[in-house]
Amino acid sequence: MLNVPPQAFPAPSSQQRVAAGGRAKVPLKPGRSLMDWIRLTKSGRDLTGLKGRLIEVTEDELAKHNKKEDCWICIRGFVYNVTPYMEYHPGGEDELMKAAGADGTDLFDQVHRWVNYESMLKECLVGRMAVKPIAAPKGISSTLSEEKKQLNGMLPEKKVLGASAKDLTPSYDWFQTDSLITTVIYTKQKDMNAELVIVDCQDKRLRGEIIVDDHSYLVEVDLDHAVQEDMAVNIAEKVGKVEIILKKKDNIHWKMLGQALESHNTFIKCTERGLFYRKCKLVSKMEVTHDTKLLCLMLPRSTHLCVPIGQHVYLKQTIAGTEVVKPYTPVLPFLPLDFKEPSRHDGAHIYLMIKIYSCGLFTQALDHLQIGDYISVSNPEGNFKKSQVQTSEDLFLLAAGTGFTPMVKLLNFALTEVGCLRTAVPELEVATAGRVMTFRRGHKFNRFSGTARKKLYWVSGKKI
Q: N or C: which end of the chain has fewer CB within 10 A?
């Protein structure tokens, strides 16, 4: 038996309870689901109150619209009349009111940066924020550079890197042979690995992203000529050099790598980069329980992507003309008890265990995907670092239902890579609703009965 304290969970003063109280979903009135909102936006009703006009909004004008019955919010320099959306917001009206009549960009990014607000609120668009003029000091020319202009959240304020920071900024170069194009990124990092390198080559567009702590370096160009689908990514971990090798479609001499895109050769914070999606093919769908499916998605041949432990991806679907996005954490391919087909644990596939809700708009659409269909999958996101558990002697994980999925890779990592846990725990018992399973270092779940170890616990299920 697991010794679980009898008091309420979470504890009354815990941050988990505080956070849940601040961001929990609220019960919506009948007829206020996501599908109902999509229908309303397609109805032709004037949701802005401006009869189709777009206007330039000053800060003073925005501040006037700060009531539930008249609420405007600015996100990244665009102003939306969210008054009609109030009753449809899963987080409740009070959450929206925190940004009423003001710039809500930071608040939006803190809560759900991944939500495609442009699609969800496109019928509520009022217009752009007016550029705020900056008075020039006396004796200085009034002509200001573009870097000095602030567009009220539309563009992040650029910061000038100091000499030491510039020395640490990655750089790139390229060269060619008769048949190959090689792009080399010098990361200037000595601990570079496959999880920190994301490469996509789609329709002659090359995109290579390097993650350096909380920053992102990007190489993004429209290639000068066509290339084949086959791509190789070589990483010299000790020297921090990344090679992206493409095969020419025609053995001709390239005069240039390609046309640089807007974000090419930039080094900015990851939170400012924005999500990038690629189309992934559904290659298998397995029933785990009556309402839970294990989906296997295959990455494009010209994509290099490894989802780090503790991070998630976003799936994007267009439902009734509106883009809808949801986060999911990949699991290991051998998670199901009765998994029989050969494991595609090769880095080219992503496995997602998803509960299908009878009234869930997004999960129902996922369940209706057929083998061979495509769905958009984002770059990984998340703040978890392996170092947080590498020196741990005790690890206690608690999850309910499919909340189990974020910890699967963490468990495998803890039992195979963390020395103090690996030597102390030959196997891990997993208590779920109605049964107990063991997670062995042999990468397999097995049913068995007994008591849980005292060193490393996993508790899953709505009742404990």
A: N
